[in-house]
Amino acid sequence: EFENQNWTKEATNIYAPNLVRIMNHVNDLAHLCAMAVILPEKLADRQESLKRLLNLVKLLLECENYTSLSGILTGLNMAAVSRLKFTTNLTGKWNGLRKNLEQYQDPSNSFGHLRSAMSSAKDCIPFLGIALGDLV
């Protein structure tokens, strides 16, 4: 599927079905995480959801699963979540953890922080957005 850049062809579902499946999974994960933060009515419940997702991202980082890590962080950075100022205004270690984890989504230096982490990882699940972009 990586050969001849099959994911860029018109019939992507035919030429690169597994890559399409992974991309759809990441997009679904992002929307699921955004909804997990948005749906609870009480502020405390929304903040608890956000904290649980941040803990999950931390575990994914330890497991070197950069695909799922990027999917969850994408969901937490969606406009619908970002507009919830009281929800996203975490204190103490949570704010520091979120800022640390968001470095992996920083596009400066062509996602340099994420690239560095993936290249130094022994065995990892890479973020395909970067891997596919490098092949083009």
Structural class of the helices, strands and pairings? Answer: mainly alpha
Strand segment count: 0
Radius of gyration: 16 Å
Which outline best applies? globular
Could you give the distance between the termini? Answer: 13 Å
Strand content: under 5%
Which percent range fits the helix content?
Answer: over 70%
Protein model, in words:
With 136 residues, this protein is mainly alpha-helical. Helix content is 71%, strand content 0%. It has helices spanning 12-15, 17-38, 43-62, 66-76, 79-82, 85-88, 92-102, 108-120, 128-135. The protein has nine helices and no strands. The protein is globular and about 50 Å long. Helix 2 runs antiparallel to helix 3 (43-62), helix 2 crosses helix 4 (66-76) and helix 3 crosses helix 7 (92-102).
Short account of what is shown:
The protein has about 140 residues and is mostly helical. It has helices at about 10-15, 15-40, 45-60, 65-75, 80, 85-90, 90-100, 110-120, 130-135. Helix 2 packs antiparallel against helix 3 and helix 3 packs antiparallel against helix 4 (about 65-75).
